[in-house]
Amino acid sequence: MKVMMDEVFGIENFRNDITRIKCNPKNFDRVGYGNIKDLILFYTKTANPIWNEPRKKYSEKDLETLFAKKNKQGRRYTTVPIHAPGETENGKSNQPFKGILPPVGRHWRTDVETLEQWDKDGLIEWSANGNPRKIIYADEREGMRVQDIWEFKGPQYPQYPTEKNAEMLDLIVKTSSNENSIVLDCFCGSGTTLKAAKINNRKWIGIDQSDFAIQATQNKVDEIVGNLFTPKSDFDFVCLEEESILTDNEVQIAVSF
Length: 257
Ligand SMILES: C[S@@+](CC[C@H](N)C(=O)[O-])C[C@H]1O[C@@H](n2cnc3c(N)ncnc32)[C@H](O)[C@@H]1O
Description:
- The protein is of the alpha+beta class.
- α4 crosses α5.
- The two termini are 32 Å apart.
- The chain binds S-adenosylmethionine.
- S-adenosylmethionine binds next to β13.
């Protein structure tokens, strides 16, 4: 699949293979390791895709681990170095700060005026041996970057045999499209992606060869509570017959408008 996708999108547009933990460990009869994950291949069409950086909220445990220190007011924080690898010559980031030069082979992360301002604002923590570090407060961070291992278990009471996790599709739709973008799911099953698209004000196209899938999609999209300005069923079905170029089977398409 990866080799095929590289051909379709171009290997340079391959971004991530995401491990999605889909269920709890099970006892398998076959010889081999248990399978609790799916693999999501993430490609973009161009070098400048839509990317709405998602953030994962810190759990209490994350806060304790990542922001282990507390100031007098009880605000959680951590500190990071104010220098980075690489030397600059005659730049603003290799001048002395409070009489200290950056360590050999490194430069200040920003210009010295900004470091002075940070220090005035109480954003620099000085260690006992005079080493300055930048203070980062937990409550000023939007959360963590989303990494490439996801845990989105399958729905407990699926309306469709291979129904996917709604929150996962919500994350993908929000990250990789904007309002009024068109989201296409050409194997839409019960329409989980389409529901995420509709809730987030995207237009959508769903395709499936199964009548059962299309019925499940209709039910799922109809479940969304509309408002005065959004009619309940703001989509149409198109049925492509056998001569369709898409497959040999009958294929149905649901299109929002
Ligand atoms: C894994 S399911 C999709 C599940 C969906 N993401 C959900 O959350 O419900 C794959 C779907 O692809 C459809 N499918 C398989 N081959 C197809 C084809 N050649 N053309 C159209 N649909 C197809 C199947 O009927 C099935 O509903």
